[in-house]
Amino acid sequence: MDHDELVLMRDVSIDFHLEGKSKVEIAKERALSRFQVARLLSTARELGIVRISIALPEESGADLGNRLAADLGVEVLISPSHSDAAQRRELLARTVARAVRDRVHEGMTVGMSWSRTIEAAARYIDRLAPCDIVQLVGAQPVQGSGDSLELIQRFKGLPGVNTWPIWAPLVVRDAATATGLREQEQIAEALAKADALDLAVVAIGGWSRPTSTVYPNLTESDLEAASAGATVGECSGRLFDADGREVRTPLDERVVAVTLDQLRRTPDVVACGFGAPSAPAIRAAVRGGFASTLVLDADCARALTS
């Protein structure tokens, strides 16, 4: 996309959003079709040229984000709120997508975990600067959603993007199986690439059946060990306590995924959190040093201030 086209997007957006001109009027004035105008306006939103804020007075994302950033010492982005939970997640996904697009530059190595929000965000990323994208977790199918392998295949279709998949489940039956998978050449290369990430995109989940994708698949001994370690959250299959320290359980030996230490060594980790129950885990991830940019929905953000 050249500079002239970007300038046209800006000018058309000003005509429509600030001057109140209709798409038909803009099309006539600029010798465009109405459909071209609609596409320019849509793309301007996707690229962040136009950013629309809609909130009740008490829901000012900027004010809330600034307070949290000062409290936590990290950058905080807050998505618009909505009464419907599905819409809130979709709005969070759009904000995650914009954060990723803004941060990816040519030649970067980007690690991509999986969650329902990250999966939704990928639908809004239709272009990236040429980069390597590394899958950070094995596949963990969730009813009604895709998985990390489907996600990485989506990025594979973007021009200039090279992908490093992990052809394995996230959680396997025993440690020997996980060791064998981690030693397979392609999977080993992907996990090794996670040692030198420029950017990682992860989700932080609370430690409960509804808020963690791995929780429902754990054994009783896993859950007992997690409880004994005072687990408050999960990130990419790795458990941690209120200070962001790893909670060691038998699960660690059966997971095929990035480690929290690898995330700590990553210069920028964009961590998304959805819903008030995830707030304690979000705070712990910041304390633990594996979340440097937070992208939150309003419910999670408000819970962090209480």
What is shown here, in short?
The protein is 44% helix and 13% strand.
Structural description of this entry:
There is one protein chain. The chain is built from 13 helices and ten strands. It is α/β, with parallel strands linked by helices and 306 residues long. It folds into two domains: 3-47, Arc Repressor Mutant, subunit A; 58-305, Rossmann fold, CATH 3.40.50. Strands 1-10-9-5-2-3-4 form a seven-stranded parallel beta sheet. Strands 6-7-8 form a three-stranded antiparallel beta sheet, covered by helices on one side. Strand 2 (109-112), helix 6 and strand 3 form a beta-alpha-beta unit. Helix 12 packs across helix 13. The longest helix is centred in the first third of the chain and has 19 residues, at 85-103.
Keyword list:
seven-stranded parallel β-sheet, globular, 10 strands, SorC_transcr_regulators, Arc Repressor Mutant, subunit A, 13 helices, 306 residues, alpha/beta, Rossmann fold, three-stranded antiparallel β-sheet, transcription regulation, DNA binding
